[in-house]
Amino acid sequence: MNWGATLPLLVLASSLLPGLVIFFLPEERVATRTTLNLAGAVLKLVLVGVMIWGVFHGSHYETRLPLLPGLDLLLRADSLSMLFVVLSSILWLVTTVYAVGYLEGSPNRSRFFGFFSLCVTATVGVALAGNLVTFLLFYELLTLATYPLIVHRGTDEARRAGRTYLIYTVAGGTLLLLGTVWLYTLTGTLDFTARGFLSGLDEAHHAALIIIFVLLIAGLGVKAALIPLHGWLPQAMVAPAPVSALLHAVAVVKAGAFGIVRVVYDVYGVQFSASLGVTLPLAIVAAATIIYGSMRALFQDDLKRRLAFSTVSQVAYIVLGIAIAGPVAAVGGLVHLVHQGVMKITLFFCAGNLAETLGIHKVSEMNGVGRRMPWTMVAFTVAVFGMMGAPPLAGFISKWHLGLGALDVGQGWVIFILAGSSLLNAAYFLPILYAAWFKPPPDSWPAERSFGRRETAWALLAPPLVTAFLTLALGLLASAPFGLLQWARFITQLEYAP
Amino acid sequence: MSDIHWPVIVILLPLAGGVACFLWPRRSVLLGLLTALGVVACVAGLGGQVVEQGAQRYAVGGWGAPLGIDLYADGLSLLMLTVTAVVGLGISVYSSGYFERARYGQDRARHFWPVWLFLWTALNALFLSADIFNLYVTLELLGLAAVALVALAGGADAVSGAMRYLLVSLLGSLFYLLGVALLYHSFGSVDIAILAQRVEPSPAVWAAMGLMIVGLLLKTALFPLHFWLPSVHASAPAPVSALLSALVVKASFYILLRLWLEVFPFANAALAQLLGLLGAAAVFWGGFQALRQTRLKMLIAYSTVAQLGYLFLAFPLASITGWTGALYMLLSHAAAKTAMFMAAGNILYFGGHDRIADLDRVVQRLPLTITAFALAGISIMGLPPSGGFIAKWLLLETAIRSAQWWWGGVLILGGLLSAAWVFKVVGYAFTRSEVPHEARAVPATMEWTALLMAVLAILLGLFAPWLLALLEIGSPFGRENAG
Amino acid sequence: MNPAFLYALVGVGLFTLGLYALIVHAHLLRKILAINVMASGVFLVLVALATRTQGAAPDPVPHAMVITGIVVAVSATALALALMLRVRAETGRAELAEEPLE
User: Fold this and answer.
1) How confident is the model at residue A346 (pLDDT cuts 50, 70, 90)?
2) CA distance to partner chain B, nearest, from residue C54 (Å)
């Protein structure tokens, strides 16, 4: 086996194998477990680095494994998959550090970290999938690996959330399967191809193709939390904070959004989708999700619930960018895939810190918390401004391209959606900042834990600071050579090339 | 290698092993395990022969078809033999822990091994039989051995279950035998290959077909003839439940399949649709009932009713991919269901009960067992990359290609029903339960065989091209464009 | 109508009669007897249909089948009777309870 075929497998194995070993570790082997976790995360990052370098220099990384006669499992590294792989492997490392700190001393950690590693393996598989059936495989594996994380605490509330999650995602997976098989019967191939592989099909199949599109997008939209399929996400916030980070930023929601990008770009092809007339409805659904999510976020007192509805809204930006069907907006959508992840993970880390250190779960309990935990709140503030789209932070870059791109293809209404959503963002985030920084702190916090002179444990503090810094860096360095924008432009060029 | 008479050895070895276990009961565990290993090796030998030389016809004692007994091995028989060998080995290893003397009583441990090996003999002979009368004899032997094993658990439930099973089994065989009589009268042969050449529609043939199909459906427990299955499969000892669900019901399905493909190719589409319809009803009824059960083994047994329904969806689809899909379903269900019954056996062994509502305290102390159950569940639900997924994919693909999408709907909804009950059980692994439980340690062999069988059900998803090529040897489903 | 055909018809009649008895009677001994009557019916059909053409020597193969069938039937009956005694010992009645309703 040559290097080009082995590397994708190694990238998967770097989290799969530690995960499997961790399942069998006795609970008290903390040091071994942490070492394995971090070693896996670092190794994956190194391997991904090698892979990027290779892809940049024109190497092909492709692994094929026959699944059925005429149908292969295919792992392939292309520029779009690298975008997601890099995001998830960097954030995984950060989240692992955070999770080790967060769960210190709690029961069932071997189980937790085992599934945690499986979850990331599935995400990287989703990213590297080279055809729809491979995508489906890892997409379902992701469902199975996240369920135990959501119900990890074992409370009735957690189990209810887990059940809701399963009902949504298993049904979604089923729709995806149905669409995939149907597509296969029409084409005989499922390999992702730039600009799609369907435009050559007979016109008689176009009606079927539209139904399949709806099936696929509905199946993916469940994880991407498009309305009306978003119901599981706010409930799932009962899970421990690192899991929320995983759900909202690294893995689940992203896998759904990424899948939609894949289907529109590499299965249907954006021009063919537009000619089928399916992109405008998708854009409208995305726009509705953006506004609806923000509206709901306004009225949540529970901090994590407010963040969850904010995710519903923010992830739809990615879909919107794709569905507008213009190259500039597409760049906006793609960079937002990364930006939203980095910003939202910061917010969830901070929310976790507040809960772990002071017992704060509600927005109304956050008065003056900036004085007690200044570093956490600095990170929180940076991420909030990023979310609202304030320059020069990451979110600004996304919104700028989305707006510009929409005007580019004559879809002016999108500007109103963006403006409205930014206003709503401000309306549900700024009061939090005001309360945290300018209101006087209460006499005592709901459940305070002391960490000596530091505001909280270093393993809890470092990750949000790192991701907040990334939010800043992604904004400032967006146009730098080899920066994210250049990368996104490269991907869209493939799609929009004449 | 090629001149060894593998087909005969594959039948005689478990028979000899059974007799040896009967004669030396003190050594029965060792003898049984050795026999199981030997059978696996011999099936591998036969497999090598079939792969090398194509489908094999073997005349026992050199007598030949009209007078003597012929054995026939093609891809289909080989696959059934292989499933039986692998599951059989698993069950043997598991049983060596389960029928531990101290707990299960000297007698039962002593009786299990010879009867189980006789049952294995009957299965192997059945899958190698080339004529419909021999199929009757082996089917009857299989039934009698299975009944004896069910009764082994003792107690009112198991004995009544065994009795009910015996009556149903005999009734089914008699229907089948009457059909054999009519066919022989019409065409003067019981050899499947000869019948396939001579057979043509006539009232007697229609009658024979009706009788044989009803008899076999009764034994395969297709809805609504499934009434006997859940209580029997639930009351038997765990390894016996496993082999009943995984292998015994499949044997009568195998006969039905052979007859349908070779002897009754003229069976009309309406009948195929009816079988498909009954299969669909079984999928829904079994899945729904499984969801309602309060005892774990009963739940698993109802799931068998549902899974058997899937096999019948291939009849209206009637194409090579449809048949292979059904066969793949059979294969992965055999592995998955064995793992599930073994897991249930471990839970019973550990906690002394299988009430679903009180599972949490047990399963949280048996992580390997609940993992086995969950992995098997993945295959039963048909999620990738399991064997169940491959089967579902093939059937779904065929349904859409042949523009009979409603069968696809059955597959999809059935999968959702299975998901519902699998997660209902698996969810108990994640509750907060801290009450210590009176428990007895489960032997490691029992936990690990359950897990290995479940892993096998998953791995089946990754070896499909190879197994499908094996199945094609001798074209049991006809050439391209059949149906 | 030739006598062979008549025998065959009687065989089918026995089969049906046995089936009826198997369904209506609850007592296990009657059920076992019913199964045996059914089996005899099938054997009769087999033997009767062995004479294919009037006057020619009957085909021996069905006879061999019947002998095999009888051996099977005898062992099945023995097992059934033994089980029936166990059922009686365990439940106090030689009848099967209705399906347990969970």
Assistant:
1) very high
2) 14
Q: What are phi and psi of A170, to 5 degrees?
A: -65, -40
* pLDDT band with cut points at 50, 70 and 90 for residue C53: low
Question: Which residues share a beta bridge with A64?
Answer: A74
User: Contact, C91 vs B157, CB < 8 A?
Assistant: no
Between B367-381 and B444-459, two packed helices, what is the crossing angle to 10 degrees? 20
Asked which of A22-31, A324-333, A475-484, B225-234 is least confident by mean pLDDT, the reply is A475-484
Which CATH number is C3-91 given?
1.10.287.3510
* C83 lies within 8 A of chain B by CB: yes
In this prediction, residue B101 carries a pLDDT of 56
Q: Is the pLDDT of residue A398 over 70?
A: yes
Name A61's Cβ contacts closer than 8 Å, sequence gap at least 6: A4, A5, A7, A8, A51, A54, A55, A75, A76, A77
> Can you say whether the dihedral through the CA atoms of A481, A484, A487, A489 is positive or negative?
negative
CA distances from B130 to B62, B66, B472 (A): 15, 11, 18
Domain map (residue ranges) of chain B: 1-128, 130-267, 268-483
CA-based torsion, A362, A366, A370, A374: positive or negative: negative
Nearest-CA neighbor of B7 among B124, B164, B156? Answer: B124
Residue A475 corresponds to which tokens in the numbers above?
A: 């904004």
**Which residue from C65, C83, C102 is facing B163, i.e. has the nearest CB?**
C83
For residue A72, the surrounding DSSP H or E stretch is strand A71-76
Task: With a cut of 70, say whether residue B469 has pLDDT above it.
Answer: yes
What phi and psi, each to the nearest 5 degrees, are found at residue A155? -75, 165
In sequence order, the 6+-apart residues with CB closer than 8 A to the CB of B84 are: B43, B120, B123, B124, B127, B247
How many CB pairs below 8 Å do chains B and C form together?
A: 95
B181 close to C (CB below 8 A): yes
Domain boundaries, given as residue ranges, for chain C: 3-91
Q: Which residue on chain C is closest to B166 by alpha carbon?
A: C80
- Residue A478 binned pLDDT confidence (cut-offs 50, 70, 90): confident
Closest CA relative to residue B206, chosen from B254, B168, B257, B263: B263
For residues B99 and B105, give the distance between their C-alpha atoms in angstroms, rounded to a whole number: 8
Kindly state whether C26 is in contact with chain B, defined as any CB-CB distance less than 8 angstroms. Answer: no
Task: Report which DSSP code applies to A362.
Answer: B
